[in-house]
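[Q] Does anyone have a clean structure-token version of this?
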Amino acid sequence: GRTLNYIVTIPEGSDVYDIADRLNSDGVISKKEFLDVALSPKTAVFFGIHSPSMEGYLFPDTYYLSPNMTPLEIVAEMVKRFKEVYTPAFASRAKELGMDQNEVVTLASIIEKEAVVREEKPVISSVFHNRLRLGMLLQSDPTAIYGIDGFNRKISKKDLMRDSRYNTYRYRGLPPGPICNPGEDSIIAALWPAKTDYLYFVARGGGRHYFSVTLKQHLRAVAKVRRNRRRK
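[A] Here you go.
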């Protein structure tokens, strides 16, 4: 008879833990088996990925997985998709920017987590590029909680002080590796940022942000957001 395949859809911005949960609940493979392989630095070395784990390289897409696939085979499918998306044109653009592949995917993963609407991605990217150029801390909230499995509450002030190499409130520059698996839009935004002088942004509702050049403008935007929230 015909072997039935599992159809598994991985949304953009899922991290390794989300993917493991999905594969587990879809009956493909246990969460632990998948994480043991996906989080292992040895797996990254095996696929020629210069990153601490496979986070960032498990491309978000719909996969047809056959039963009895090993975790390594599942990872291989996802990496294959990533390599199809990350074209030589992307690689040469990264070189122009003086970035390596892991830096691009890491930045793309932060953009993926920060942006809600697609058209803001290049603008959000420009803020991080500008901050990196000036040696400022990136101060991206999602980086502070990376690696906490199943985190689903509001990020607190205490979270932002968490001592993790991924926390861009505590450590300068990009984290050592991606914080999620970004889609193609976010990779493109990381490589082709909008041309702006923005250094700050704050969520203003409806998935959009106010962008500012100076701290003074930013604090005004933050106050405005707070006022609007109180009115609701």
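[Q] Thanks! Anything notable?
[A] Residues 202 and 210 are 5 Å apart (CA to CA).
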